[in-house]
Amino acid sequence: MLLAIAWKNIWRNKTRSLVVITAVMLGLWAGAFILAYVFGMINQRLEDAIGNEISHLQLHHEEFYKDYAPKFYLENGEKVLEGLDSNPRVKASTGRVLTYGMVGSAANSTGGKFIGIDPTREDQVTQLSTKLTEGEYLQRSDKNKILIGKKLADKLKVKLRSKIVLTFQDINGDIVAGAFRIKGIFRSYNTALEENNLYALDQDLSRLLNAQHQVHEIAVLLQDEEQVDEYARDLSQQYPTARVESWKEISPELGLMVESLDQYMMIFFVIILLALSFGIVNTMLMAVLERVREIGMLMAIGMNKVRLFGMIAFETIFMVLIATPLGLLLAYLTIYWFGMNGLDLSGLYQEGYAAYGFKSIIYPQLDAMYYYRIMLLVGITALLASIYPAITALRLDPVKAIRKI
Amino acid sequence: MEGHKDRVIRTEGLFKVYDDGAVSLKAVNDVSLSIEKGEFTALVGPSGSGKTTLLNLIGGLDTPTAGKVWVHEKDISGLKKNQLIDFRLYNIGFVFQAYNLVPVLTARENIEFVMLLQKVGKEERNRRVDQLLGEIGLQDKAGKRPAELSGGQQQRVAVARALASKPQFVLADEPTANLDSKTAENLLDMMAKLNMDEGMTFLFSTHDQRVIDRAKRVITLVDGSIVSDVTREKTTIEA
Ligand SMILES: Nc1ncnc2c1ncn2[C@@H]1O[C@H](COP(=O)(O)OP(=O)(O)OP(=O)(O)O)[C@@H](O)[C@H]1O
Ligand SMILES: [Mg+2]
Known about the structure:
heterodimer; A: 405 residues; alpha+beta; 2 domains; six-stranded mixed β-barrel; B: 239 residues; binds magnesium ion
């Protein structure tokens, strides 16, 4: 009966209750959607970073990171790659020759990262060929051809087929230089990468380095991202002299971003709920104050405090209970739709997003877990918001309340 | 004090003083009275004479400044607020001037409500509600909400609700104040009939002379004190 009265009381002032229900519904909808949007954005950034730049795992010589000296190439690079090729867990892998130095044109010069690639394998790992906006991708038969980022090309004031000179140390520490002709210009949503990286054939760089055909870096893309840590361990055991790192270690800021996002998003949601709960409390206080006489009468005829509290509290909770599934359903539907079709904000912030390595079309996504968490938070909010109005009702003195008649 | 097995209400030296610092007002001033089971008593007096205050004290809604109230020889003056709520639920039926009913419940549900609070079984509840609806003559309005009933009908439902909990007595503070005199008389006749049929004790306050005429006993208050207490041998009640 108390529940029935609480339920019926909601509909005494339909407009007011519907305003609260709608507010909670919209709040949850917007909150969940923003959550999904941010998760979609971060996930996309992560997938891009893994699929286009850093891959799931990387292998280097143990001392390579010390000073990035070209003499620290991977032992048995060829063998490692063969082993990876025959492993069903591996989707693609490639070896790279790495060196750092100066790149100069007639107009300008700047620092750069020179990457010697196996064009076919590299493309499988990072889809490099798809990033080209001008010119063509590298081929095995090319000689001293190079791919350069658009930003760097602008800085050096060079165009397709221009000649640029790379200067760096060989494995003996001697300075060497090589002239390369620009075969292609690529773009990347990651500005830093577009400004720094140059891709040449591994054989060309090895020759300049006075090295055998050896690689400094092996990048591995796995079939299943969940297996990263496990497979990293396996590889370390298999190749004890190599340093095996997962994407989280290679790019700790990405890992941190993913992990801290959870907390930030929950804080964000708590703030939304806090705002909503003020609205709920306010409405319920109005409802209680409107019914002072009635509540006084109920206390007079013997409705005890527990029951009175329950009656008012349930009214609050019911309103939230009506709003929550509606809000979350709306959120689910919009997230699903935009998750399929993408949300394009390119008109607004494309440049800004690109500077941080984000794309402008976002595919919002929200794990089921977050819907449960939201429900839990909403439940707690409803309970907390129900307390104050109910306590206000309890404080009424029946004698005074009835005298108002 | 002995030999009063059927005494339902007794007060002894009851005071209620309102003191706002500057003036102290004795709303109830040394009231001692007792009411036997089955009485049908009117509490009368000019406005501000303390009728409501006295009823509230007897009904355990308010606590006296001094003096005691016994209900069935149980001293309720010492009960705590929470204990009083439960005491009222099981021992006292209330009828107020207005706002007696829960607006979202039907007449039937309103009558049933107190029994639900008392945790009376469903069968017994239905039986009692049907019986009371018959006694107040509103069987056909059982499914109506208060807003769909006339003022007189609402007060009838309120009386039925007060009786539903099988209280020791019913306190009614100006139950007819919002009714026209014909309707008021009808309500009083109904109460008188319930008084006869169920042996229910009624104590009601009123201004209305025609209502007063129907009482068996009339207690008059002036400035918080009883100035007369008359029990009539013959009454004008027709059953
Ligand atoms: N809470 C209060 N504080 C101060 N004075 C009060 C309070 N309640 C009642 N009084 C005073 O106590 C006196 C008795 O009031 P009460 O309501 O009991 O009279 P009444 O006989 O019921 O009057 P009426 O016929 O108008 O209903 C009045 O003078 C009233 O102003
Ligand atoms: Mg009064």
